[in-house]
Specification:
elongated; about 180 residues; 3 helices; 2 domains; Nucleoside Triphosphate Pyrophosphohydrolase; alpha+beta
Length: about 180
């Protein structure tokens, strides 16, 4: 028995459907430990960004919005998918922050990145910190967005997570990166 997990060999791959914001791909693979063959399903998704927008008063810019998957209104930080052709998560984050909230800031930088769900998804989620944020623009929502901006004191975030008022898993991960960088 080996103490090393090896990458599974991929013999074939095909996109079986395209759903605007993701594609479903089937990979024909072989488990190197057993030699057994498997058809694996992968959601091909664009990379995402999550933005920790911190005001000079140490408030974090949050948004509330309806989420169709859970059919709930969620308290989240601003974020979104990287558009086709976008390669810089920081630039995407600044665009998303301005469009969703009207806020801009400075000292923007990546403070973490993780896989959304590596069991079935191929994308990464980048967490971007933007400091000294202030509202400088009108919001520019697309037809599918309906948001309320909320300013939450940084000190309140752990309690809101504990009380299940912040429940989006990649938002919790982003807030953890923020805590580690403070």
């Amino acid at each position: 028995m080996s103490d090393e997990i090896r990458k599974w060999e991929k013999h074939a791959s095909r996109v079986v459907s395209d759903h605007r914001i993701f594609k479903i791909r089937e990979d024909h693979t072989t488990n190197p430990r057993t030699g057994s063959e498997h058809e694996m399903v992968v959601l091909e998704c664009p990379d995402w960004v999550n933005i920790i927008a911190l005001t000079p008063e140490r408030e974090v810019v949050f948004v509330e919005q309806y989420r169709q998957g859970s059919e709930t209104v969620e308290l989240e930080i601003p974020g979104g998918m990287m558009d086709p052709g976008e390669t810089d998560p920081v630039a995407t984050a600044l665009r998303e922050l301005r469009e969703e909230t009207g806020y801009t800031g400075e000292k923007e930088r990546v403070i973490g990145a993780c896989f959304a769900n590596p069991a079935i998804m191929n994308n990464r989620v980048h967490t971007i910190l933007v400091e000294n944020c202030q509202r400088t623009h009108e919001v520019e929502w697309d037809a599918g967005e309906d948001l309320i901006t909320r300013l939450i004191p940084e000190a309140d975030i752990p309690r809101l997570i504990r009380e299940n008022q912040i429940r989006h898993s990649i938002v919790v991960a982003a807030l953890h990166y923020f805590a580690l960088n403070n």
